[in-house]
Structures are given as structure tokens and as C-alpha cells.
Amino acid sequence: DTEVTQTPKHLVMGMTNKKSLKCEQHMGHRAMYWYKQKAKKPPELMFVYSYEKLSINESVPSRFSPECPNSSLLNLHLHALQPEDSALYLCASSQKLGQSYEQYFGPGTRLTVT
Amino acid sequence: SQQGEEDPQALSIQEGENATMNCSYKTSINNLQWYRQNSGRGLVHLILIRSNEREKHSGRLRVTLDTSKKSSSLLITASRAADTASYFCATDASGSSYKLIFGSGTRLLVRP
To answer: What is the pLDDT of residues A82-98, one digit of tens each?
Structure first.
């Protein structure tokens, strides 16, 4: 199984809502990532977990809250988002943390904040 | 700041032709990766080339790396309509051993 799954595929939420994005992999990977991608732009790293511990937070606003309940799951909790947070949110995983490991990406969650 | 810049930004070719995309970067790297993204979907890893390698092949893909010029190229031979996608190079961020920085990407359209 070389698949990273993400749910939901699409999400529309108001600025006062609380929602969560979910990501799952069963490849035994110990590094998991959240990226944000705006239209026609490259992905931008948000958070990295290594062995279920937060390793990197790229100065992301606190309205985004990551969580790694176990080695297979990664969540991104959303609260009080702004319209400019509308984007494609991509989850990825790699065998370990490091640039020499290829990253496997999920299909993404298309988020629209109204 | 972006580590990798790609050109062209967009490329349109006929099926069967070859497509070449270029990536330039600013600081020394340990390795460089290429990814493909179909419209609105996740990225797919294509190939990784290490700084001590000059060329690498995978099927119809050929990647070159010139560390003296801080540049890499991705060649897709005998292109197919299914190759239509955005292609990104990704390099290690300066001063970081674990962060990838993606280039601006090349949008490739292969016309049937």
C-alpha cells in the first residue's frame, strides 16, 4: 500500500467554524507533512512531524493546529480561518525526515473559506 | 524565498515530441527531486538526483544536474497526452537538512 489518503476531498467552511482535515498512511513512514498550495503556485510547507512529534512549524498562524495521534494519522484542526486561507491542503509522508527521502502525497483537500 | 526557479512557466507541445523543463537554484544542494502534479491533485515523485550525479534516467524521463551552474533539467521523451501536468523541482533548503523547497513549476500541455 503506497497510498496517502485525505479526507474530506472538498470542504467549505465559514470563518467561525471549526473543522478538521485528516490524513492517513499505512506505509510505516515516520515523517508526515502538511503543505498549503494556492492556485498555480508550488506547495508551501506548514508543519512536519517526525516520530509523532512536531519537528517543524513554518510560522503558521495558530488558527491552524496540527495533531499526530499515532504513526499513521495526521490531522489539521482549523478554527476561525480567513478567506485567504482558501487553498489546496496537501498531506505527505516519507520514510523518515530528511531531504533524501521521497515524499508521497495525498490527493489533497480543497478548502474554501467563506 | 524560493530556492528553485523553473522555466518555462508553461510549455505546449504535440504528442510524440520531447519536452524539456529547466530548474535553477541559488545555494548548494545535497540532492534535487522532480515531482509531477496533475491538475488539482497531489504530487507524484518522479526522480531524485544526488549532487554527485550528473545524469539519471527513469523510463522516458532523463534528468541532468549541473552543480557548477546550479541548474537541472527534466527531459520527457516521446510525450503523451497523459503527461499533461505541472512539473516541480524540489531542492533542500539552505541551512536545513530536512526541508524541501519547491520551484515555481512548469505547466506542460501535450496536445493529442
So the answer is: 999 999 999 999 999 88
> How far is residue A36's CA from residue A42's CA, in Å, rounded to a whole number?
9
- Per-residue cell: A70: 499515532
Among B1, B38, B94, B98, most A C-beta atoms within 10 A, so best to mutate, is B98
Cell numbers at A13, concatenated? 467552511
By C-alpha distance, the chain B residue nearest A91 is: B42
Distances from the Cα of B72 to the Cαs of A11, A90, B18, B37, in angstroms?
37, 25, 16, 18
**Statement: residue A36 has pLDDT above 60:** yes
Say if strands B100-102 and B85-92 run parallel, antiparallel, or are unpaired: antiparallel
Please tell me the distance in Å from A45's CA to the nearest CA on chain B: 8
Q: Is the peptide bond before A8 cis (omega within 30 degrees of 0)?
A: yes
What grid cell was written down for A79? 478554527
* Peptide bond before residue B8 is cis, with ω within 30 degrees of 0: yes
Q: Give mean pLDDT, residues B50-78.
A: 96
Task: Please give the pLDDT value at position B97.
Answer: 64
Chain B residues whose C-beta is within 8 A of a chain A C-beta are 2, 30-31, 33, 35, 40-45, 48, 50, 88, 92, 96-100, 102-105, 107
The reply to whether A112 touches chain B by the CB within 8 Å rule is no
Residue B67 near residue B25, CB atoms below 8 Å: no
